Amino acid sequence: MATLVSAVIERARTLLRDADPDGDYNHSDAELLGWVQEGHSFIVIVKPNANVANQTIPLQPGTRQELPAGAIGLVQVYNNMGGDGKTPGNVITIVDRQTLDNTDPGWHGSTPDGTVIHYVYDEDDPTHFDVYPPQPDPAGFVRAAYPTNPTLPDSLGDDVTLDDIYAPVLTDYVVFRALSKDGANPTNEAQAQGFYNRLTEALGVKRNIEIALSPNQGVIK
Questions:
Q1: Is the distance from CB of 135 to CB of 114 less than 8 angstroms?
Q2: How far apart are CA 51 and CA 149, in angstroms?
Q3: Is the CB of residue 38 less than 8 Å from the CB of residue 12?
Q4: Angstrom distance (rounded) from CA 184 to CA 190
């Protein structure tokens, strides 16, 4: 069952000791909703696989390719999907750019082929990748996974758009940001840092558990 934004804010108010039954809160609903929205983006920045799309995407003629709008990086390009985007084809493997450059210096201008063999990815240009050989015109399709900007909830009655498992982290983020407003107060500053440390630790621990429990741990190499 999806977690409501109002539930995150209610728990945050409890931790902030800001649960006035008369509604005279120190932190308005609009303020805390803003921190919930910001928290969605923060979680995906720290842990991109918190919001991953796995879709068939169209390619462009040539080698240079751009990920769909909203993508913030690339997880993997899996396989060809034909000229219609509906026909699963050969797998696509990643290759080091320097290796490809050394092997075939003219690869960007080589003969186009609708079947992609390799792709190249540079983390410093996260929303683009290159394919080999170049795509013809019209180009084909591939299946890829990529982290995306999260859809942000608009009201307290909306659902948190990340998986429910991130609701406690969102709560800690809201409390951290609310306490950080008064940085001149040493108590608030220390408490804010404590909540920040807790939420970043939770994201890091989750990542370590994911790695430890990954099916890839049993892959024979």
A1: yes
A2: 7
A3: no
A4: 11
